[in-house]
Amino acid sequence: MTDNPPGSDTGIICSIDGISKTYDGGFKALETVSLDIKQGEILALLGPNGAGKTTLISIICGIVNASGGSVRVGGYDVVEDYRQSRGLIGLVPQEVNLEPFETVNNTVSFSRGLFGKPKDPGYIENVLRRLSLWDKRKDQIVTLSGGMKRRVLIAKALSHEPRVLFLDEPTAGVDVELRKDMWDIVRALKADGVTIILTTHYIEEAEAIADRVGIIDKGKLLLVEEKSELMQRLGTKQIRIELDDKLDVIPDALSSYGLEIDTSGDALIYTYDPAGGRTGITSLFGDLKAAGLVLRDVRTHQSSLEEIFVDLIKGRT
Ligand SMILES: Nc1ncnc2c1ncn2[C@@H]1O[C@H](COP(=O)(O)OP(=O)(O)OP(=O)(O)O)[C@@H](O)[C@H]1O
Prior knowledge:
It comes from Hoeflea prorocentri. The protein is α/β, with parallel strands linked by helices. The chain is 32% helix and 27% strand.
């Protein structure tokens, strides 16, 4: 890695300019995607299956050739200056692709060597400790749990001291606890100054850790926005309040909340903006009680990515 790569003073670590990709069979996976990734940010690329997220990451990492456009990482062109740009990038793939009988330490150290970096046991120790893998360093990969294997993938991607880390679906199919662990790891890496780009299907994931969110659908980048702005604009939450008795009309005392009666008649739906300063939930519950309504159950519902897409597409036509 060069100390001062070209472009390092712009605050933009990765510049994607008009990237398109048509696969051999003629399928258009990306259409003129342009995006600047800021140094030190966590950017979440949200999109459904087949949206083109992996294709975009693969182009940035030099694994797939773009059909048009260019990408620079740390000022280096990912095609013309492949070695320099790739040296700045760590990639955590979707699939666990580790050598089962190798030890954790060898797996991570060997990966560093592949990038032509001199041995640095102190750095590797630091990475393994960060990821709670130090005690497992002599264990074979095959003996590790799925969660530990994911940690090894991250350690491997960090082995050559990248400045940008790409995580492709880091929490697809993992349990809630591991998902939270992953988020903690990502936050800690950001605190260390690493720029992080992750792809995800989960709006909650973007909401939990991203600074900015990009939405990709059918090969198009529909928008890139600060998470807080996006959530405010699109991410409404609903509370479903189930009642002991059926209701025909909303009591006057509750008219200011914009409540809807569920088609079943025995539940009220309250929609609010979680990013707004006041949700109105506390006063709503007070007023429900005052109106003499008896609650049976309360459930919350977050707008799904799909609903957000529908809203987004409606807004564009
Ligand atoms: N090598 C390939 N040849 C032809 N089509 C491909 C190839 N790789 C991907 N595609 C197609 O390109 C589209 C985008 O795929 P991509 O893997 O980039 O999407 P994704 O957003 O990462 O989806 P997922 O969330 O399922 O991983 C898909 O329709 C996929 O089938």
